[in-house]
Amino acid sequence: MNESTSKSSLRDELSVQRDTSEFIIDFLRVITQEGDYQTAMENALEFLSQAIIADRIYILEQQRRLDGRFFERCAEGVAPRIARIKEVSDGDLSLFVNHFRGINLIFAETLEQLGLKDPRSYAYFQALGINSLLVVALRENGRFVGTLCADNYTLNKNIDVKRLLETIAPFLATVISNNQLLEELEWSVTHDPLTGLMNRRGIDAAMSAYSEKQDDAPFTLALIDIDDFKGINDTYGHVVGDEALIAISKALFEEFPKNALLGRQGGDELIAITLGGATQEAVGAIERFSKRLLSVESEGEEVRLTTSIGYTTSPSPALTVKEAYRQADIALYAVKEAGKGAAKQYDPSMSA
Questions:
Q1: How far, in Å, are 206, 280, 282, 283, 312 from residue 287 at the CA level?
Q2: pLDDT tens profile 270-307
Q3: 209 pLDDT exceeds 80?
Q4: Percent of the residues in the chain that have a pLDDT greater than 90, as a whole number
Q5: One CATH from 2.60.40.10, 3.30.70.270, 3.40.50.300, 3.40.50.880 for 200-351
Q6: Ordered DSSP codes for 119-160
Q7: How far apart are CA 163 and CA 81, in angstroms?
Q8: Strands 343-345 and 261-266
Q9: Domain-by-domain residue ranges, the chain?
Q10: Which of 8, 57, 78, 254 has a CA that sits 20 to 30 A from residue 229's CA?
């Protein structure tokens, strides 16, 4: 290499490093500018697409308690895959995320370079249409908070992409971690930490927001008591009582629609509010739940769990949320009077 070529190469290298530094500074402005978190993350991916030309650039969050979120930016003509990612099983999604948990940065031009050792992993990535993949692990103080990925990518030669990603990854992880902390704090204010159900404050806030959307917004409200819960605590101890609450709460999540508001109002008093006018769907969920064969174990002994449920619908016969609570409570009392372990819908004759 002659002196002229060497100087030209040095100028090119200095130019790349200068452009990279400017790009990093501009990126940090993008993710720290005022605005909501969703917009900031979308803008960050849009900005990164100038350095990483890919079919898709996306971020998969890994949260400690709440469902991880996804952000995606697609090239023109490339179909979004977020919906498909959300539909995969938890096992497959964990397979994707956990494969990269121990790495920092991967530039894989082929699937083989990803180090996929088991056939299932290889088939999963192949099915997603991934031929080449760039992966950056995002960590905050050593805690894995997610991955930044780019499918079927090429790199902008005017940017030192490796330096770029190694520099911005900690900042991006901090933004994610701070938002997760804020969301967890907000979650703790409106949820019961033992069961993951909403508390009374959370239920009231959600119902208030729902009712504001339209007049006479329809819903089905069910009040649920665990039968003989005090006896379970007294006989087997509060640890078993807590396990009973967790088991029943899990069954609630399984039986009721995703839009249902599921809450614990204190002790063994639970609530399920199904939003919308699908009354038959709501009643079906209540009836199925009331027939669930649930139990917990205490020192080898099976402790069977049953519930008593009273429910009503709005706007008829209940006209307000307060009235729905009253009617469901009356129906719940009728169930207990009849022997517990069942569900009853409010009927005006119960108030006679």
A1: 24, 10, 9, 6, 13
A2: 999 999 888 899 999 999 999 999 999 999 999 999 99
A3: yes
A4: 59
A5: 3.30.70.270
A6: HHHHHHHHHTT-SSEEEEEEEETTEEEEEEEEEEEEE-TTS-
A7: 28
A8: unpaired
A9: 3-189, 200-351
A10: 254
